[in-house]
Amino acid sequence: MTTAEATAAPNSDISAGAAGAVGASGAGRLVAVVVTHNRLEQLKVTLARLLDSPASELAAVVVADNASSDDTAAWLAAQQDPRLDVCRSETNRGGAGGFEMGMRRAVEAHDPDWLVVMDDDARPAPGALAAFHAQPRPQDTALAAAVYFPDGRICEMNRPSRNPFWQPRVFLRTLLRARDGYHIPYDAYDAEAPLPIDLTSFVGLFLSRRMVEAAGYPDPGLFLYGDDVIYTLGLRRRGETILFDPALRFEHDCSTFQNDRHRVFSPLWKVYYAYRNGLMMYRAAAGPLLFWPLFLLVAVKWRLTAKRYAAAERQAYLRLWRHAVCDGLRRDTRRSHAEVLALAETG
What we know:
- This protein is α/β, with parallel strands linked by helices and 347 residues long.
- 39% of the residues lie in helices and 17% in strands.
- Strands 1, 2, 3, 4, 5, 6, 7, 8, 9 and 10 form a ten-stranded mixed β-sheet that branches.
- α8 packs across α9 and α9 (270-304) crosses α10 (311-330).
- The radius of gyration is 20 Å and the shape is globular.
- It starts with 5 loop residues before the first strand and ends with a helix.
């Protein structure tokens, strides 16, 4: 992270040395990474929940402020908790860029044994961090939390999965049951033992420092969508283990169109990232041989989706679709967010 990319808030001088009095418990020194952008009220709830945990459970909290234009920067600068460390990007780098910036800061400044990552509208349930420390945690095993809506329903967008292309039984189940074929079953949330998985989200994901240093950081060029799936699939391809642990409960106070079969993207520019990154994700999951028939299916499906959009938006949608497909096939993440916004213009 260069000086041009991010600046530290006044309360960000905490470091591994300055935090020498902060202890570690159970699994070792845990540091949380929270990515935020213009959702101050949600961020306040998340930070209060995190900082309710004693220092023995949570040594530091790194907030990656993605160029928020509301009162986020001023509010964070006024906070006095010595465990809070703020790094701010001068431009919005999306979720992927935020996690790259925040994870890098956490490793370089706070000497963690473990990181736990989340969005600003997600936070551990009371007791979740104590549950993480309740037993030794092997450095070669990442842990995915059980994520729920505030009302107690399972958060579908954070339901972990097995890769159907790596396991014939899961592949056949996917052909018969679609999403329910490759996502973990709902009864796994009530199980007593953790369940092996292949891919999961950046909400309540516990990663050892060793694992992060070996695998690197998320690709900031992905900006939005699929960065967590691509990253966790990369961990699995390296031979790392990822377990879904139902004892680690998280809350995600989000709205989602995950179950809407006739969904449209709003704002429209999100089409580009969903489709470009989706192709990269499918290639990572399916491999070069099976990717191409899958590509033909999804590309045609996405093209037909244009009819869901009003006439004024349809041409912009098709323009975003074409560029997303071209860039996704090349695995090219260099297009700037400003360029994507220009592609989405409907005037």
